[in-house]
Amino acid sequence: MSEHGLSSRDPLDLPLSILEVGVAGRVELITDPPKEKGSICPLSTVPHGLPPYEVDVSYEVIQKYLGDPEWLSMHHFDRSERSWPRTVDSPSLLHMEVTAAHMELSVERNPATGELLGITEVLVDHTGLSAQNSLSLRRPPGPPTQSVRGSTSNFPFWPGGMDEPTLEQMKTVTEQEEVVDFENDLLTVPPGWKQGMNFRPTDVRRPLGVLPLTSLLGALDDFSLGDSSEDEEDVKRRVQPGKEDKKETLARSDSLEELGVTTASAPAPPPPASLPVDAANEQWAVPLNMYDPVDDFYKVIPQLAFKHPFELDPFQKKAVQCLEAGSSVFIAAHTSAGKTVVAEYAIALSLKHMTRTIYTSPIKALSNQKFRDFKNTFGDVGLITGDVQLYTGAACLIMTTEILRSMLYNGSDVVRDLEWVIFDEVHYINDAERGVVWEEVLIMLPDHVNIILLSATVPNTVEFADWIGRIKKKKIYVISTTRRPVPLEHFLYTGNSQKTQNQFFLLQDASGAFQTKGYYAAVDAKKERSSKYSQTFGARHPHGGGAGHDKGTWLSLVQSLRQRDALPVVVFTFSRVRCEQNAAALTTLDLCNTSERSEVQTYYTKCLSRLRAEDRRLPQVLYMLDLLKRGIGIHHSGILPILKEVVEMLFSRGLVKILFATETFAMGVNMPARTVVFDSIRKHDGSMFRDLTPGEYIQMAGRAGRRGLDNTGMVIILCKSDVPEMSDLHKMMLGKPTHLHSQFRLTYSMILNLLRVEALRVEDMMKRSFAESRMQKDSKAHEQRIKLLTKSLRDMGDIECTGDLADLPDYFVTVNELIHTRELLQKRVVESINGMKCLSVGRVVIIRTDYHPWVPGVILQVSSDATNRVYTTLVLSEKRKGGGAEPGEKEKTSPPTPDDLLMGKVFRPEGPSDHKLLKLHATDVLLVTGKTLRVHADKVLDDIARSQTPRYRNDPPGPAVSAVTQELSRLSDLPPGSLTSLCPVNDLQLKDMDVVEAVSRVRRLEGALRGFSCPNSPRFNTQYRLVEQRSNLMDELDRLRFLTSDQALSLLPEYQQRVKVLRTLQYIDDGGAVQLKGRVACEVSSHELLVTELVLDGALSPLTPEEIAALLSCLVFQHKTQCEPRLTDTLKEGIKKVRALAERLAEVQRQCGLKESVEDYVAQYKFGLTEVVYEWARGMPFSEIMTLTDIQEGLIVRCVQRLDEACRDVRSAARLVGDATLCAKMDSTSQLIKRDIVFAASLYTQ
């Protein structure tokens, strides 16, 4: 077959069949085809048929001819290939789909008789819509393959609460758009024609003619004398069409059946509370009082959608009432308080209403756990994660928040049927890396979707709910409770041996009271033991006694808890290494009996039975089995995912007595323990060591206490070395939990996904972020204020400034600029070192008061507050007579004149002089003079304080005050110009460019003041106040317009910089339209710029699938390793290309204004797992993989799983650009890495 070519079968060739005759192996050729399906006679009489001697000819021909064209013989090509002439069908190129009709005919009939009254044309909205051009829910569904995850070419559905563009906004023409007026600028005369169409309205006049008698008789036939089928009001409107009926008539029924008695359906229960609506200050968050009884719960809701086997708590009943009313709720409660009950009821409601619910969680492991729980309860539940999609058509879908964000951006049709979206662990929004995802999802959800938020207790629940309600324009009912179903008792433990194993000291009782007595008792016990130890063995290391000391502590603690029947216990340890060390210290214990060990062995073997034999012999697998048989478990990110699930399931069964876990275990499903132990109250958060925050401590401590089993939960803080400070413990245990803060940030993916939809703007997304909630909260009030100010300006009209007032506007501008420049200059003087030295006690300064613009004073005291320094100053004043006003105070409203602004004669009292003590800031000081006085400041202040008392109020000033007053009066008598001010440049040596320019500007403005003639006009005061009033109105109007504009957004500069980056890299054009590179980037979920450049530059195409997987590992690996990978030359060259490309991208970002340095941007791509991934893709067993690196097993598995998601992103990008070779390689790459224990199915999905 390989030497001779076979020609293709001709339609005229005869068919050929082989028939076996007899049992001796004789065969005959049959040329007649069978007349029916099947054979004419049996093809074989041998019991097992003819032995196979060669591959079926037809199969081999099809495989080689169609699957491998290179096999075709070049010597017999005339017999190997045959072509048929193609029939040309040119008209098929002219085929065009019929445009959907924009109008339809509506028939109007008499409702009683069915008589045809008329036919009218009705405009049909939403025609020609599709997922690629519309954000409407009325658009047709997309292909079934895109129904769940959507497509990057789809438009998202219109976000709820976001106003659609107004007519004025749509008429706004951008710089790139051509102005075309379709009403006035249309051409009506075609080229070469003398005249064209005339669109001007004309009056149509009908000529008078002779009316035929038949038409008149026909009109009489149509005249009705009160037919019962015709409404009297219709007759009146027909007779008097120009008049409108001003009285409402009773509604009439079109059918007699509708007049019968109907049964009233039970109305939906109203929300428990509501707030008055105010257009400007509407409160969208409605807090519900948890102390109000819910006695009428079963009367309002007689038939529950889901019945629990226990009585609901009050907060759960209030939440159920809100759900039945179709309202959104925000529930903040402690761990294990029963928040999941609300989620379960929402799922049951969606099943009842035949709608859908999405449950989102922050981590994939929690999604798997919730899938198992809800699947057992409801059945119709699906799961969507990065690598698993189960039952995607179910009524309830479990997924991570990132998956939901992708579905919203990609216009998934699942959103159409959504009734509820449940956000679990909402306090995770504080996560700096992933918190932005929650805000994006909340903003993008359509209007018909209701929201359920489940969170731990946070202080600003109302603020957060008000933000959500404002952006979605719907009420959010806040249900917050601090009650725990099982109260907690907190202890300090100082024991470390059998003698001291019962040293538990109560620090906080079940009522929440802090026990100071218990704290001091723990301190005394620690000191006593340290003293005895130092007397016997010498001084101990201040931080504890090392591993041996820790082992003694754990052994004594576990024995004591075992005797108290306080197991199981969860030990929170903030280090993976410490978890394993603590577990190793208890290997001498055996906390399980024989039957429990047998059950652990059986269950462990069953769970791992699907793994390969060599994977079941991994060191971590064998070590974990030995620990679990002793009743000890370990749970952290370094453990294999399947082993973590085994530990969780055994813990829920009560077979794990003590579990050493990191903080992530506190975010899992409801797995409470009898006791919670803190190995330490300090953790490393990635940048530094710090104490636990109150929110972190409450979240982990809440795992103590099993509802229905324990009266109280036990929380223990180990004191291995010294007892923590009381203030630190009090702050951690009784302090307020961390507020919910916005972590909103701009990403290239978000910008590109919004730019590809013209109707959505990135600025609108930023406006609706939680970071801008306070600014947007006042936006309606600002808009109303803008309308009022605009009306006031319109009513004010133009101000007359003619004649000698012609220069009044310029004079007003000059005065305000001078005052503003002086304030800025004075601020710089005070902030300088020399300025602070000059503004000391005894310095003479000039200030402006209500009674004179130039008043001398002397500084008596300077506050120590560096940020807001206050100067206590004694100034001259006029002595009051009979308690009247200061002379000249009535003139304080007069406008400033050049004499007021230019220093001339300083204030001198006309009669007896007096004094005032003022508290001044730096901006209140006009001039700092070169004069200083020797004053006894303390005596002066004492004299003034003494004169303020009622007994000495009428006494003359003290000698110290009199001396200062006389000295100031003497300075006032000096000729004008004698009191010179210190020059900031020459005297204070301030050589900054802005200071020098400010001094020069002040001198120029002071010189210009003398040249104005308007101050001499008799109408100066009146007209100046009008100009000032108009200027203040315009300034306030400009300020409010700025606050309501996009320019007030805090992230707008960064957005403009990122847009500049995208424009430079040609992801978008100058008009903001997304180009091919931008659409490719939309396919990528993370590191979109680098992945897009790698695909379009062709850097991955020449590589093998194994090498591609190794290089892409830099996108998912973020840990540190001490092992240097051994790489091939191709991989080394590939790493250089990736880093060079990253440097180029970072340099573009830096040139466009972004602050991230080139080094930091390149350093985020780590290649420490390159060799591991390369060998794994080549088929190396996992046991040998662990010899190549010091990274723990669980971290490797997690990185390879995330790598598969990155491979799918690259495959989608390659498909979009038409790179079939790379697309096929990415499929191969995914297949190579998806094997064995790394991609073992979750136990929760089995």
From TrEMBL:
Keywords tagged on the record: ATP-binding, Cytoplasm, Helicase, Hydrolase, Nucleotide-binding, RNA-binding
Any Pfam family hit: DSHCT
Keyword Glycoprotein: no
Stretches for region Disordered: 133-155, 222-272, 878-900
Subcellular location: Cytoplasm
GO molecular function, one term: ATP binding
Entry-linked SMART domains: DEXDc (SM00487), DSHCT (SM01142), HELICc (SM00490)
Polar residues compositional bias, start-end: 145-155
Skewed-composition ranges (Basic and acidic residues): 234-255, 878-893
GO annotation (BP), single: nuclear-transcribed mRNA catabolic process, 3'-5' exonucleolytic nonsense-mediated decay
Positions of the Helicase ATP-binding domain: 320-476
Main location: cytoplasm
Keyword ATP-binding: yes
UniProt superkingdom: Eukaryota
Gene Ontology, cellular component aspect: Ski complex
Annotated ranges, domain Helicase C-terminal: 578-755
Catalytic reactions of this protein: ATP + H2O = ADP + phosphate + H(+)
PANTHER family reported in the protein's UniProt record: ATP-DEPENDENT RNA AND DNA HELICASE, ATP-DEPENDENT RNA HELICASE SUPV3L1, MITOCHONDRIAL-RELATED
Name of the protein in question: SKI2 subunit of superkiller complex
